[in-house]
Amino acid sequence: MKILTIVGARPQFVKAAMVSKALKKHRNIQEKVLHTGQHYDPEMSKIFFDQLKIPRPYKNLKVGSGPQGEQTARMLEGIEQECLKLKPDCLLIYGDTNSTTAGALAASKLHIPIAHVEAGLRSFNPRMPEEINRIISDRLSTTLFVPTAVAASHLKKEGIRKGIHRVGDVMIDAIYFFRTQAQKMSKKNFQSLIPEEPYFVLTLHRAENTNDLSRLRAILKGLSCSPLPIIFPIHPRTSAILKKENLSLPNTVRPYKPVSYLEMILLQDQSQAVWTDSGGMQKEAVVLGKPCYTLRDETEWVETVESGWNQLLGAKETKIKKALTQSLNRPPLKRFPTRRYYGDGKAAEKIAQILKNL
Q: How far is CA 155 from CA 4, 86, 150, 213, in A?
């Protein structure tokens, strides 16, 4: 069985690391990884393949950044050509990026079965490009690997009832597997990264926040009253927007170059709390036992909010300031019920077995 895996962005590298490792155990499965080049910065791409032991992509389309239409079109063209050459039995896609959608569109028109890892997630915010990507990819997929019961219910409400497999969340596999490696890293290796004093961690990269200057300014103003230093591994696109718009970070925020997945796990694990607009980091934070404050108006990971571990702050300056003031005096929470919501950390093994039996 020939599987063509499409990756292009940081979260996909992490998920693919776990699934590819599980696929290797099955001799009748041959996987090839195609990198779209959506994340082209070495710190956002190459280092992940080095650290996470992901199978080396046999080809990089080197699409890079650009307007969404142009970027997706170039991916679609490149993926279609590779599908025609390789004639895979299945196209494996991850998440909700332009790489995901381009893969789904290319394979569907060539009548190649599509397996979508992390299917069924919905924010119900049509202004998010990720939401459009999710809906299109789910509609075109023949095998849908959902991480939660809520995700499965979304698909059924949309009339998708065949090919749904609740396997758990592959990111939980990754957290459990790589946390041990991250903890083994000597803190001396990261003296320039991890402060001796208590700190918060911040990520900020969603288009809804970075492309809307009123939201971006409100978030930065809100973070200015932090009682602790905020470590901010800054996304290249966010950095470019700050420079273009001549926006300064508040003194409380310490910018750093992008970090690897292991470094980010270590940063979160030793922090007091996580402030983010990332979907993946909301889960990582709560599973690591860190309170999460989400700089969005909604989340796909509703379980993190229902459990009390995650607060939705949006881009409201007053809410952010209030949460910062209260963050160090929050009463202790019961341990997040990871297994109940996101599975037992064996999602990748279940995905590999299902693909084998297709």
A: 24, 31, 9, 34
Distance CA(38)–CA(13), nearest Å, equals 12
Looking at residue 203, its amino acid is: T
Read off the pLDDT band of 50 (50, 70, 90): confident
Distances in Å between the Cα of 350 and the Cα atoms of 40, 70, 147, 221, 345 are 31, 36, 11, 45, 10
Tell me whether residue 73 is exposed, middle or buried, using C-beta atoms within 10 angstroms of its C-beta: 0 to 12, 13 to 18, 19 or more.
middle
- What SS3 state is found at 177? helix
Q: What is the mean pLDDT of residues 144-169?
A: 97
Taking CA atoms, 278 is separated from 151, 246, 298, in Å, by 18, 24, 11
**CA torsion 48→232→171→49, rounded to 10°?**
0
> Is the per-residue pLDDT at 180 higher than 60?
yes
In eight-state DSSP terms, residue 116 is: E
Residues in a beta bridge with 35: 7, 60
Angle, helices 170-184 vs 279-287, to 10°: value is 60
In angstroms, rounded to a whole number, what is the distance separating the alpha carbons of residues 297 and 287? 21
Instruction: Assess contact for 35 and 75: CB atoms under 8 A.
Output: no
- d(CA 356, CA 358) in angstroms, rounded, equals 6
Query: In this structure, what token pair is assigned to residue 327?
Result: 């963050």
Instruction: Let me know the angle formed at the C-alpha of 201 by 339 and 273, rounded to the nearest 5 degrees.
Output: 55
- Angle ∠(143,145,149) on CA atoms, nearest 5: 125
Instruction: Give the C-alpha separation, 173 to 194, whole Å.
Output: 25
Which amino acids are annotated catalytic? 205
If one counts every other C-beta atom within 10 angstroms of the C-beta of residue 288, the result is 18
Q: Which residues contact 330 (CB under 8 A, 6 or more apart)?
A: 291
Angle of the 10-23 helix axis to the 170-184 helix axis, nearest 10: 100
pLDDT in tens, 92-109: 999 999 999 999 999 999
